[in-house]
Amino acid sequence: MGLRLGGKGDWIIGIHEIRVGARVRVRGDHRVESRRGAVGKIIGHYGGREHVAVDVQLADGRRRLFWPTDLKEVPLARSWWRSLFEGG
């Protein structure tokens, strides 16, 4: 489970949840305005327990390093046919 950002209600990625291949979105209050809301895929992570950087390949092909707290996971869209089996 991620950490809940104070008062915002958005779940952010916790250090133990960094998964290569996960789709993520840069938080809307990121300090670099041009990166806000950008979507990408985690391609690696670096560092130890105290300081971890997440390597993200953005949709436009650029790679950037982010702190885990800069990102939130984008849930995968549920396939329409799954609802037939899951009753929803």
What's the structural blueprint in terms of helices and strands?
Blueprint: E1 3-4, E2 11-12, E3 23-26, E4 39-47, E5 52-58, E6 63-66, E7 71-73, H1 82-86
Antiparallel strand pairs: 1-2, 3-4, 3-7, 4-5, 5-6
Structure keywords:
6% helix, SH3 type barrels, 88 residues, five-stranded antiparallel β-sheet, mainly beta, globular, 35% strand
Structural description of this entry:
- This protein has 88 residues and is mostly beta strands.
- It has a single domain, classed as SH3 type barrels.
- The model is unreliable at 1-9 (pLDDT under 50).
- It starts with a strand and ends with a helix.
- The strands form two sheets. A five-stranded antiparallel β-sheet has the order 6-5-4-3-7, with no helix packed on it.
- It contains one helix and seven strands, in the order βββββββα.
Number of separate helices: 1
Taking the sheet with the most strands, its summary is: 5 strands, antiparallel
Low-confidence stretches: 1-9
CATH topology: SH3 type barrels
Distance between the termini: 24 Å
Helix-residue proportion: under 10%
- Shape label: globular
> If you average the pLDDT, what whole number results?
81
What is the alpha-carbon Rg in Å? 14 Å
Strand content: 35-45%
Q: What's the number of extended β-strand segments?
A: 7
Sequence of secondary-structure elements: EEEEEEEH
Number of individual domains: 1
Just give the CATH class.
Answer: Mainly Beta
The name of the CATH architecture is Roll
Structural class from helices and strands? mainly beta
Strand order of the largest sheet: 6-5-4-3-7
